[in-house]
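Holo prediction — 2-acetamido-2-deoxy-beta-D-glucopyranose.
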Amino acid sequence: MSIAWPLLLVATALCSCASSASASAGGCKFPAVFNFGDSNSDTGGFWAAFPAQQGPFGMTYFGGPAGRASDGRLVIDFIAQAMGLPLLSPYLQSIGSDYRHGANFATLASTALLPNTSLFVTGISPFSLGIQLNQLKEFRNRVLATNGDSGQLPRPDIFGNALYTIGIGQNDFTSNLGSLGVEGVKQSLPSVVNQISWTIQDLYNIGARNFMVFNMAPIGCYPAFLTELPHDSNDLDEFGCMKSYNSGVIYYNELLNNSLADVRKKLQDASIVYVDKHTVTLELFRYPNAHGLKYGTRACCGYGGGTYNFNQNVYCGNSKVVNGKTSTAEACGDPQNYVSWDGIHATEAANMKIASAVMSGSYSYPPFDHSKLCGS
Ligand SMILES: *[C@@H]1O[C@H](CO)[C@@H](O)[C@H](O)[C@H]1NC(C)=O
Ligand SMILES: *[C@@H]1O[C@H](CO)[C@@H](O)[C@H](O)[C@H]1NC(C)=O
């Protein structure tokens, strides 16, 4: 059975507040968003540090590469827009950034734990959660030192009123799956969720009070992992997703949910919302047709066709010489029909549906009223 979602048109704004510095005085409860995470919410940090991204990334909404691992907007973009705020500028982006309504510390390939490897060896970002937290602290110190004479910086009182969003852990989970397997990776998951909970407490200690923490999506349905990770056909469920890896994700999500419950007990005057992005994303993979999409476990931008249209040697936008001829992984002509953009990341179409479901408040614990985002 597919779930019917309330029709919530994110793009037409949940609130009518203008994107002005007086947003907090008007409809929107939160004047700023500070985000921590990985590629699922990176709005340009990684590509600011390590240029340059190529097309067809960004083709649907931005008309070209926009530092996002998608054809268009991410869930965090839709949330910012629904709050009447500008899209979040990456902390690492030195040109054209505007931090008056927050900053984004997320980078592609980031982990919650400090990495023991290098970007140039295994592709893991050096900007893990602890580094991102230090960046926020540095940002905050600089803002407090401005005494309100801020330019492109927020007002000094923003940190207590802002919404802090965190979506990280997927790379901690997936980067060792090939070598350790699900059972091996499970051993490290308690320290991953602890890292997230410590980050919340650390942020709380410098005045943060409102948190939204995203759980992990069902990576066992991702075309890239279906292609790369060892599994036998018995492991596929009726929707074509891998049961073993998805059960590891469910295990992780339970740990995260429980850990947040502990933090909530300690920090009683804070709002710590667990956002069940997993259920929403799984629903899209299982019943794409019920949500206006056509393809679940097939990548839009990839190479090789077949069930998954994914080849790890020819990643979206790249060209490689395969069997003596140059092959390029190009985008499909209809990304609006796909859940998966490049085999790992979601399309703008899927992100819009996920954001809309998330902001309906029905996929959160404690139940989250979207009027909290904008108090209209
Ligand atoms: C890296 O090594 C340190 C020290 O041994 C450890 O605390 C940390 O959890 C490791 N990180 C990962 C991602 O395994
Ligand atoms: C998360 O934990 C709470 C209890 O703290 C529980 O009521 C809720 O159902 C859990 N949510 C999910 C999605 O597991």
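READOUT: The chain has one domain: 4-289.
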